[in-house]
Amino acid sequence: MGRGQVSLVLLDTHAWIWLMNGSDRLGPKARKAIERSISNDAVLVSAISPWEVAMLVSKGRLVLDRDVGEWVQAALSQAGIRLETLSPEVAVASTRLPGNLHGDPADRIIAATVRHSGAILLTDDQLLLDYGKAGHLKTVKAGQ
User: Fold this and answer.
1) Does residue 2 have a pLDDT over 60?
2) 3-class SS string, 20-50
3) Confidence category of residue 142, pLDDT binned at 50, 70, 90
4) 92 Cβ contact list (under 8 Å, min separation 6)
5) What are the C-alpha distances in Å from 136 to residues 12, 102, 117, 130, 144?
6) What is the residue range of 123's domain?
7) How many domains does the chain have?
8) Which CATH number is 108's domain given?
9) Which helix (H) or strand (E) holds 10?
10) Is residue 66 part of a domain?
């Protein structure tokens, strides 16, 4: 992203959690990208991310300060953040991604959503970062 330029930013599920929980794991470069985009309602969350959050909670891998349903509603009601729906085009595209991306359906849907929307993915998932380095996605390391 160029200086002052606003782009669509899609938060990987962990980046969304970090943002909403005020975690310092979200780095300054990622925060700056979010700040640039949030005032233009240009920060996206994939439709699969609420499911991922709920699964993490149900498996005991994530503890939230409230019921997961309430957390998701509050997180999606934040100004500048919007849920990117799972369209039939994205669903089909997630099965036809170029190159090598592992079979995790959530990551495939996130990757297809990023490609379809033209967004930049904020993630610390090394497999998705490598997929971006291979030229299939635009990525920013969420921890930077």
Assistant:
1) no
2) HCCCCCCCHHHHHHHHHHHCCCCEEEECCHH
3) very high
4) none
5) 16, 13, 13, 9, 21
6) 9-141
7) 1
8) 3.40.50.1010
9) strand 9-11
10) yes
